[in-house]
Amino acid sequence: MLGPLEAWHGSARLPLGDQQQRFVLVVLLLHANRPVSTEKLTEIVWGGNPERRNLVRGYINKLRKAFQGTDVVIETTPTGYLLRVDDDQLDTVRFDRLRAEAEAARADDPRLAIALLRAAVDLWRGRFLEDIDHDRIGGTEVMSPDDSYYDAVGDLSELELDAGDHRSVRDRLRPVVRTDPARQKHAALLMRALIANGDRTEAGRVFHATEAALAEQGWEPGPQLRKLAARAERGEPTSSLPSREGGFTGRDAELAVVEAAAATPGERRAVWVGGAPGVGKTGLAVEAAHRLRHRFPDGQLLVRLNGYTPNVSPMTVSDALDQLLGELGVPPEQIPASVNRKFTLYQTELYGTRTLVVLDNAHSPEQVRSLLPEEPGCFAIVTSRRVGEPDTGAHLRLLELPPEDAFALFRALAGPLRLRGRSAEVAGVVKRCGYMPMQIRVAAALFRRHDRWPLEHLLRQLEESGPWPVDGDGADGAAVRVSYLQLDAAQRELFRLFGHLPGPDLDVAGAAALAARDVPGVRAVLDDLHEVCLLEEVAPERYRMLDPLKEFAAAEPSPTTPTERVDALLRLLDFYLVGLAAAVGAAYPFDRAHLPAVHRTSRVVPSFDDQRQATAWIAAERDNLVAAIRWAAERELPGHVWRLAVLIWRHFHTTSRFEDWVETMELAWATVRAVPEEEHGRAHVLLRLATAYDRLGRLEEASELATRALPVWRGLGDELGEADALSMLAISQMQLGRHTEAIGHFEAALEKFERCGDRRGQAHALSMLGVLGEERGELDLALRRHRAAVPLLRAVDHRQGLAHALNNLGTVQQRLGLADEALDAHLEAHDLAVELGDDCLAAYALNYTANVHRSQGRVAEAVHYHERARAAAADVSNTDLRTRLFLDRAATAQAGGDRSGALHAYRAALDLATGAGNRGHGARAHHGVARALHALGQHTKAAEHWDAAEAEFVALGQPEADEVRAEHAGLTCACR
What we know:
Helix content: 55-70%
Mean pLDDT: 87
Shape: flat
Oligomer: single chain
Strand order of the largest sheet: 6-7-8-5-9
Structural class: mainly alpha
Strand content: 5-15%
Largest sheet: 5 strands, parallel
């Protein structure tokens, strides 16, 4: 029945008669081994026609003759006819049995599950009873197993992909997806198979076919399909895994535990690897992650959580989510501010993917819970010194290596030639290292470096070295102490200083400042320390020290200079301050006049050829800079604290790192508020802390801080700072709905910016005055102000600001009927966005371009640009953008006569606006829903939306309130 109706006995096909006889047979088959009355057969096959009742007996006799000599029997019972057949003789029953057996075997024996599912799928020869009129065999009461077929094909394809059999998946799914391209799950599986086979172009074609099929039904591709399309376009998925450790040895049982957990279905799949410092937790996690790459083809991510890194605070959940979202391809400016929204976006990005996440050096289960993927296809490996909890994954306690594995590790790292006939000595070395992988690596590196040492000499050195307890569970640090004692004075000094670093790592220039040496000289020292495994190179010319080594280094006193540590760290602070000032000046040249003067110097000063290099340096040093601010605050160095915090605020602003922004500014405020000579510091910090609070929605606090900043700037006689404070105060007032006060402050700020010759400040004030003018319906005034802002932004080469200003200009021009000028503005904004790689800005520009075309009656062109905007925004998590896209696409659908499409889009916009608390978008969405329902004749439902739209516009003080009120009043239907 899984295809055209057929019956076979051995290799012979049985004659089943005409269509009427086949209908009777199918009804009996659907009720196999159960009696069916003559009346029921007549009712089902002939619609209860009594004249056909006498035909039943004749058809039954013909079927009995057809089945003579087989195991199939049609019996006459007191209540009708019963077709007696073994369940396994029916392909439908056999199909269900094979699927159930495959499901039971899937976790423990995937190969058997594949064989069973292949047998099940091979039973299908077409659609269920495709040559039978279903209305003649029960109609809607007949449950077709077609969906079960597609489920089986999907399950089989997933197992085959896990097994690496991509070609079987490709060949099986091509006809399935070609027949029904709107099946997203199967399209995604086919794309995965094609990408695995290197056919990215064909994978892109599959995506576009599915996208078109979904669009016809009013749907959009889900995140999994979009991510696969991006993979097809870009190539290999994201992977931030470090290289495998050379000579990784043993741990077969532990790796098997991790691999078994990765293969076990379920949500929040994770393994928590615990153990003492130096036992090899990170090495095991990285090795397991590399072995599992084929299971998680959508990405492999690693985040170092600094749970037990000396002198470094554990990474916050917010920071970890920022890093993970960045690894997943979310642009910094699109990462939300709150932890909850970051978590939601993170889980959304993982939805429908198979991604592996390694969370290294966790401090506690609380730090990890929000970072564990909820998507069943994903998996996490956590490493920590402490024990996890039941909801953070299966626990794996890592102990020291077995002696034979420790022996093999040392042999692999040291090289076998010098170890021949020295088994007893090797056993002594690894025993003295406590069978701990980290110390074995240090000892092997030391032995490799001293190629004239006999093994006995290394063993003697280890036995003579003083103990360094790692902790109660670990071995002593004999190998590390011997290695340290072999260093020269410069190497020892830098090694000790690394133990006191406030941040997680250090580049070559920073190390030169720390050690008061030139860059070439310190580069050689770093290379030496790396060679003997006392430092790890985490990026080109950037080094970090493993936590146990850092603890050892911090405990070593300086043999000559008691103030060695303090002096070195002060030099490092100066390096960060001077370097950050140079980087900010290069990255944000329009801000140079607003930057504080630097009061310190550094013998090492990084230089930057362009904005890209400068922004990359700030991003690379960000965690170190935040750590430096904390360290300076703890030691009451206000000049360093507030200058570093004020210099880095723009980076935090553009990358939406609000927690770091607020923390560093609040630390700065705590250090300068009571220091009389730091009046400039108080002025800067009040201003930038107000900016941070405004971005976080703490509007009253922002207004209060800006109000306090204003007289401080005036007292300093700094007119540019006063203008900045007025602008900040105006922004707060505007957000609070106090538009008149905001306009007054912006106008005062504009005058001061003009006197100071600050064109960026002038452009900002003019642009915001233009936005306020548009909100108040003063379109001619708004146009003049936007036109004045644009050339100023061109002059200072603030391209992102220019693109936003051009979009603002274009929207006003479109409302004034200046369609050609509006198109020019939006198209230029789009070109700038593409050049900057800003998908969010590009989507806005394309959407506004669509609006211009709609305003001119070019609906087809508008739809085209809306589609381009939607595609540009596919991977952008920006609620304002998505809401605006739905609002404007709804308006275009309405203009094109697609009332249902308009209603669907307006309701989607209303849901987004309500969730985000955006009252302006919500009012427009209510208005759109009301209009769409009215057009569809659903007047009673429309009434509440008319009222809601008018009430919201009135509350916001916007001119649309009068328009909605007049439109509503003019209706004579039940909308009133």
